[in-house]
Write a structure and sequence with these properties.
- The protein has about 250 residues and is an alpha/beta fold.
- It has helices at about 15-30, 45, 60-65, 70, 95, 105-110, 130-140, 155-170, 190-205, 215-220, 230, 235-250, and strands at about 1-5, 35, 75, 80-85, 120-125, 140-150, 175-185.
- Strands 3-4-2-5-1-6-7 form a seven-stranded mixed beta sheet, sandwiched between helices.
- Helix 1 packs across helix 12 and helix 6 (about 105-110) packs parallel to helix 7.
- The longest helix is centred in the C-terminal third of the chain and has 15 residues, at about 235-250.
- The chain binds adenosine-5'-triphosphate (ATP) and magnesium ion.
Length: about 250
């Protein structure tokens, strides 16, 4: 079982879109996938068509209340794709975990119980480097960092890299950067090209060859509770995420 964190503490860079669509394409490629929504906003949960108000259990119950993952997952409507959903109660976890023993390792421990059940676990992280994200990094083999091709794209990246290195040295020596994914690329805007050049210059071969364009279908799909392949399979956004997912599988990360 490979565990992949989708992380960037910057908000709105495409983490959830990447988590939902990678999960969907990995599942279609035959992997048994668990998508974990680790963001109290619950956008990944909504993005795969799960109604947050109707949840009995959520990620909160696994991380804080000691429930097992398999008691709380939902086998959504897509083959090979289970979801550990979240809702706003997860916001309290950041504070409730502070006083607990092994507070960074809660998720890692819970994942051990399901390691025979899944091939790939994708964790959609919140836009912060708090305890929830630390739990994800501690439990992961790989990090995928979506970077939005816009102004300030690189701001905060050194802090993110420092955090990854710290987790690697203190909590999880297995952790590695699996890929940097350029998102919301707009070929009409010169800045997109500049950001791409800068990111490739810095992260070299860690940057996925596939680039995700800014695409209206990608922004519409969540409101229908569908991954892009179900919502608009022939859109540019679908092609790009399919290619990127293939790259990640081919490189042995997923
Ligand atoms: P947060 O930090 O709040 O969790 P995020 O990093 O998860 O945000 P998303 O929710 O994936 O980012 O994307 C932010 C917004 O941009 C959403 O409305 C999403 O639908 C839209 N979006 C994401 N990727 C694209 C894209 N390639 N083209 C057009 N819109 C996109
Ligand atoms: Mg998100």
């Amino acid at each position: 079982m490979k565990v992949i964190s989708i992380v960037n503490q910057k908000g709105g860079v495409g983490k959830t879109t990447t988590a939902v669509n990678f999960a969907s394409y990995f599942a279609q490629a035959g992997k048994r996938v668990l998508l974990i929504d680790l963001d109290p906003q619950g956008n990944a949960t909504t993005g795969v068509g799960i109604e947050k108000n109707e949840l009995e259990y959520s990620t909160y119950d696994v991380i804080v209340s000691g429930k097992n993952i398999n008691e709380c997952v939902i086998s959504g409507k897509y083959n090979n794709l289970d979801i550990l959903p979240s809702k706003i109660d997860l916001a309290g976890a950041e504070i409730e975990l502070v006083g607990k023993m092994s507070r960074e390792s809660k998720l890692k421990k819970k994942l051990e119980n399901v390691k025979e059940m899944y091939d790939t676990v994708i964790v959609d992280c919140p836009p912060s480097l708090g305890l929830l994200t630390l739990n994800s990094l501690t439990a992961s083999n790989y990090v995928i960092v979506p970077i939005q091709c816009e102004f300030y794209a690189l701001e905060g990246l050194s802090q993110l890299i420092n955090t990854i290195n710290l987790v690697k040295s203190e909590l999880n020596p297995l952790l590695d950067i699996g890929g940097i994914l350029l998102t919301m690329f707009d070929s009409r805007i010169k800045l997109s090209d500049e950001v791409e050049k800068e990111v490739r210059g810095y992260f070299k071969e860690k940057v996925l060859k596939s680039v995700i364009p800014r695409n209206i279908k990608l922004s519409e799909a969540p409101s229908y509770g569908q991954p892009i392949e179900m919502y608009a399979a022939s859109s540019k956004g679908a092609h790009a995420y399919k290619e990127a997912a293939k790259e990640v599988i081919d490189s042995g990360i997923a």
